């Protein structure tokens, strides 16, 4: 678990409580592997008689294997490598990512993913608005703007990683697609671990929560998975592109209750990101419930008191989990 | 600056209309403000102010100069702003020049008043050493390190803090000479005088989004504004300067309403700033 400095003014009692909670967390997280954490130029203990492979983050100097990055030593069969703690997003095929369209080009959209390179979403990888499975024609290409425009937020899956490192995305099922009526949050990618489910529908609050593996998190009003046929009729009737704006304005604004829940979950995510805790639905909902039970005002969640409370709660939660 | 999608814009505007912004703030709530003084030891006074994600530094340098012939009994102050490319990649090269000159002009208007010196927040007569011959020239520089909306308020606060931190050396006119000659002066190394900043105003910017005004807009909210009004108010409640930005026009009654809201907000902001500045000065004294 990576600790980072809190940039918030803490009073004396808060500092003491925070320090104590952090110490408890650190004692809980010590595993067999913690002895294997290295810093640059540490020597990695290796049995030189066995053949071993030097992986990322290592280099052989004067017959010794030294670490070139700070991290944890991992051993997989004969491979010895150093895994860094705070890394850039490392994509894998099948990851669910949330991104923003930066460019509409020929038969593809370029998507910004908080990664070294942009992701590419091909027109053919996107479900046709008709719902038909057919070859995309030039008319489809001209109508690309009816699907996604610049700055749209969308949710896609990584299809494959090309040789130059860029990502190919696809959005073949109805779950994926444009995200509206909510807010996009950016956290560090290493705080989101890969799990079975990244789409979460919190039915008690009517909110969609999508944890993208690249560190983008979408919190928004729940949208029923739409029937593509209905959308096509609407779009074909209008000829001016400003029609999309009109349809949105005609729709009512998000209700105050839903908005409060969205903002509260958003702030819970911000607090967890400030503290450097890994995020999944359980932790986020617990922070959300904690803020509700303590009747903390939504904006006060970003204050120092709530940060200390969340740290203490997290220490409790992990200790309880350990016992079970 | 990254654009936001139509759906997000709609969500943002809806939030402002319902008095619940994306980070949970009310329309008239400021983000936490943190002030650090004395960050540039070579300058006569300096301060760094952070409002949420916006981070600015202001520094004050004093040099001996000659008062202008139009106003021989006043010193001179000039304001210059630099938007650093670390804040936005578009600020590199000449990109940030337009914004810098706009901010400098607005700050000059708010702090220094009109050309004749009327309505100035800073008392220019206190900068005088010898009438018509010698005065202090103050060069106030602002640097934008990180931009997340509400630059003008942050720069105004930073300048107020920097002026509070400014120490100008005491000057003794050593010999009396004839009218057309420059008198000799003796600049003291040890004795300093603090600048009187009780009348320096604070700047409150009200951003109009839809039919409502918000205070302390983030960069996303500013991208959706129809117009913004920045009003500088001093401790007594007098308006020292007024700037309007943005493409759309406003009804005069709206402007009068915004002025009264800004006056109300300026009291809380002034008190908050004063306490932060004195805390920062105390912190600096402890360290040195």
TrEMBL record, chain A:
GO MF annotations in UniProt: RNA binding
Subcellular location: Nucleus
Keyword terms: Exosome, Nucleus, RNA-binding, rRNA processing
Main localisation: nucleus
One example of a Gene Ontology biological process annotation: CUT catabolic process
Matches recorded under CDD domains: KH-I_Rrp4_eukar, S1_Rrp4
Domain S1 motif: 92-172
GO cellular component: cytoplasmic exosome (RNase complex); nuclear exosome (RNase complex)
Gene3D superfamilies recorded: 2.40.50.100, Nucleic acid-binding proteins
PANTHER family noted in UniProt: EXOSOME COMPLEX COMPONENT RRP4, PNAS-3 RELATED
Family: Belongs to the RRP4 family.
Protein name as it appears in the record: S1 motif domain-containing protein
Organism annotation: Arabis nemorensis
Lineage of the species this protein comes from: Eukaryota, Viridiplantae, Streptophyta, Embryophyta, Tracheophyta
Automatic annotation (TrEMBL), chain B:
Highest taxon of source: Eukaryota
Keywords on record: Cytoplasm, Exosome
Gene Ontology molecular function: any one: mRNA 3'-UTR AU-rich region binding
GO cellular component, as recorded: cytoplasmic exosome (RNase complex); nuclear exosome (RNase complex); nucleolus
Residue ranges of every copy of the Exoribonuclease phosphorolytic domain listed in the record: 30-169, 200-263
Main location: cytoplasm
GO annotation, biological process: exonucleolytic trimming to generate mature 3'-end of 5.8S rRNA from tricistronic rRNA transcript (SSU-rRNA, 5.8S rRNA, LSU-rRNA); nuclear mRNA surveillance; nuclear polyadenylation-dependent rRNA catabolic process; rRNA catabolic process; TRAMP-dependent tRNA surveillance pathway; U1 snRNA 3'-end processing; U4 snRNA 3'-end processing; U5 snRNA 3'-end processing
Locations listed in the record: Cytoplasm; Nucleus, Nucleolus
Keyword hit for Ubl conjugation: no
One Pfam family in the UniProt entry: RNase_PH
InterPro entries in UniProt: ExoRNase_PH_dom1, ExoRNase_PH_dom2, ExoRNase_PH_dom2_sf, Exosome_comp_Rrp42_subfam, PNPase/RNase_PH_dom_sf, Ribosomal_Su5_D2-typ_SF
PANTHER family named in the record: EXOSOME COMPLEX COMPONENT RRP42, EXOSOME COMPLEX EXONUCLEASE RIBOSOMAL RNA PROCESSING PROTEIN
Family per similarity comment: Belongs to the RNase PH family.
Identification of the protein by name: Ribosomal RNA-processing protein 42
Source organism: Arabis nemorensis
